[in-house]
């Protein structure tokens, strides 16, 4: 009989005490849980340890990509499942993952569909479903260095979709969600500015209008009801913040204030 591949579940966290118990319970069947904490003060560490996780610490923040790389470096096993504290593995997804672990090791990576919660509704359209992310993979792969919107560098690896969803509690609290979006927009703009990217006023409004229409029409957001319309506005707002922040950095740089 073939030997089942052991699995390391890897998370990065900060002040996630409210979300963590349900998240860790959904992956309690894994062989190992690794949590990299970024200076929590709300009991995240204690909760993680009670659920059997190995907790490591890093108070320096270099962006999501590098933080995931560091967290992954503490894993003991060759197969990684990377999740966030606001995500939950469904029973169907667990069964799909276990079937993969029963197969011989390979360089194949696996994508997972996420069901994203927005203002009380798990969205089915609007570009928020199936929202596939590559999260199950051999440890030989690493995340890129992006500060936000990081992704796994898989080169020419074969990507196979898994059955079952990853529940993502994206927006439970609208104010907290908005602050997080603003932080993402700021980090995105700083990264693009460092790369020498430029943005004009016309481009700001073009990208903003495009984001609204893309969410509502091209991605059928109107089929998600009221939440679909609101998400189209939120996406437009996020896009406006990104490009305006980039424009502001460009403007300050030209005037010698950076």
Overall description:
There is one protein chain. This protein has 258 residues and is α/β, with parallel strands linked by helices. It contains seven helices and eleven strands. The longest helix has 30 residues. The chain is globular, with a radius of gyration of 19 Å. The model has no long low-confidence stretch (mean pLDDT 95).
Count of extended strands? 11
Structural class: alpha/beta
* Uncertain runs: none
| Percent strand | 15-25%
Largest sheet geometry: 9 strands, mixed
The helical percent reads 25-40%
Calculate Rg over CA atoms.
Answer: 19 Å
**Arithmetic mean of pLDDT:** 95
> End-to-end span in angstroms?
63 Å
SSE succession: EHEHEHEEHEEEEEEHHH
Give the gist of this structure:
The protein is of the alpha/beta class. Helices cover 40% and strands 23% of the residues.
Chain-wise SSE layout:
Elements: E1 7-13, H1 20-25, E2 32-37, H2 44-50, E3 54-57, H3 64-73, E4 79-82, E5 87-89, H4 91-101, E6 109-118, E7 121-122, E8 133-138, E9 142-143, E10 152-153, E11 159-171, H5 174-194, H6 201-218, H7 225-254
Parallel strand pairs: 1-2, 1-4, 2-3, 6-11
Antiparallel strand pairs: 4-8, 5-11, 6-7, 6-8, 9-10
Key terms for this structure?
7 helices, 258 residues, nine-stranded mixed sheet, globular, alpha/beta
